[in-house]
Amino acid sequence: MQIRLTVLAPRSGQTPARSCDVLVTAPAGTALAAVASQLAAAVSGPESSQGGGAVVLFAGRERLDGHRIALGEPPLVDGAVLSLQVPGDDEATDDAVPAQLHVVAGPDAGGVHLLHGGQIRIGRSADADVPLDDPDVSRLHCAVTVSDDGRVSVADLGSTNGTSLDGVEVRERPVRLAPGALLRLGESTLRLTSGSRPATLPTAPDGEGHLRVTRAETGAAAPGQGTGAPFAARTPDHGGQGPG
Question: Which residue, 9, 18, 138, 239, is the most exposed by fewest CB within 10 angstroms?
């Protein structure tokens, strides 16, 4: 499995934090602890792992447990940004959730790659945006494109062994890549998942220390239940007074 990680060194005074993009090649499920010292050395030099202290990595404000978090699993997915020794800035909230390519079969099975937009080249080369350690994949095998409206397409880049989508050959002309579709190249299979957020339910305080949540109508109500009736979730009462 190959994933790209960006590692940020600790900020020094007014000097901006130094960063380094690292291409990690390791078996799927490898614990972060197995590569933590190499990640630190990539951005701070070999002396960073020789000071006697443990290497601590953060994803935003979250301190990562190197023995419990594995490469290829959130938050250690392709394109993740890690901070060395000190917490990083929280990522800005963005309603646009990128689509993801999950490697479900092949040497890199378990990898997750975020598709932020534009053209994403897939191949065996380290220059590929999604590198695959698969000898049957061409250096630049195919390209996935995410348009401004969120639609995803795929086209072959003149690969040696070809590309197929749900068993149908893909040529140089782009074809739609739908969520759930299986993209096969070499011995690797990738599946696209949608980047849309799940719908959230409307809520409002009721003035009595409760939060009212209105469920959307989805059809006939079960016996004894009203359709679309609000239900309450208790919120902490900091006022020290109950309803009169």
Answer: 239
